[in-house]
Amino acid sequence: MATSLPSHPIGVFDSGVGGLTVVRALMDRLPFENIVYFGDTARVPYGVKSTSTIEHFTLQIVDFLQRQNVKMLIIACNTMAAVAAEKVREISPLPVLDVIESGALCAVAESKTGGIGVIGTPTTINSNAYARAIHQMDPDCRVYSQACPLFVPLVEEGWLDHPVTRLTAQEYLKPVFVEQIDTLVLGCTHYPLLKPMLSTMTGNLKLVDSAIAIADQTAELLQQQGLANTQRGMPDYRYFVTDVPLNFRNVGERFLGRNLGAIEQVSLDRL
């Protein structure tokens, strides 16, 4: 691989559209960085697939992004991070960050009492990846996890502050609120869109948004490694997907909070 240069883009990838919340946080935190996003929309959802298949798909995407001369990799998908982050770090010469490690690090730093709640998809929660990451950083933390399977379809429908979404959130959060927690990790890249609604329900709890956490860590890492882009022109954003499903642009722009621009489709045989 060619040597990474500060002007090279950051590579961000996800199984679908959710990782665009990470791209949004990166754009806000690092407005001069070039970004390449890859969403494997033809093969989503990953959560129902075997570990070996998820790992195989992830490494295909890593290879594709490395061919785009990215200077670092961000795994913006909790399922991929839970299953394949270790393998990606093994095989890639690039710096690698992932949403689980970033979210866990931020939660441990923010919590004053050591009581941390985690909400996520059933796959992420069942993998126990957040609890493991948090306990590696601080074995004394108490972690309470809750799967919220309906949040993803509600977010994609645009029901961000709908009465149905509020009722659903109340049901999901009841068992978490019973525990003595002071910090709640939004353990899915769809969930930052629910943050305004959730913050009205969670009182003084600190909400940890993995997208913001990973953007902060990216800024730090690029400075440390001398890879921060020094050019102050308009950044270049590229979006690759393996399929352009119906309504993809509308959903994607809701996640990104701005116009998506050109979307480039990559056939699976190019991976």
UniProtKB/TrEMBL annotation:
Pfam family membership, one: Asp_Glu_race
Gene3D superfamilies cross-referenced by the UniProt entry: 3.40.50.1860
Binding site for substrate: D14, S15, Y46, G47, N78, T79, T189, H190
Catalysis performed (reactions): L-glutamate = D-glutamate
Residue positions of the active site: C77, C188
Enzyme Commission no: 5.1.1.3
InterPro entries in UniProt: Asp/Glu/hydantoin_racemase, Asp/Glu_race, Asp/Glu_racemase_AS_2, Glu_race
Highest taxon of the lineage: Bacteria
Signal peptide start and end residues: none
One GO-annotated biological process of the protein: cell wall organization
Record pathway: Cell wall biogenesis; peptidoglycan biosynthesis
Keyword Isomerase on entry: yes
Keywords on record: Cell shape, Cell wall biogenesis/degradation, Isomerase, Peptidoglycan synthesis
Molecular function terms from GO: glutamate racemase activity
Family: Belongs to the aspartate/glutamate racemases family.
NCBIfam families with a match to the protein in the record: glut_race
HAMAP family in the cross-refs: Glu_racemase
Function: Provides the (R)-glutamate required for cell wall biosynthesis.
Full protein name: Glutamate racemase
Gene that encodes it: murI
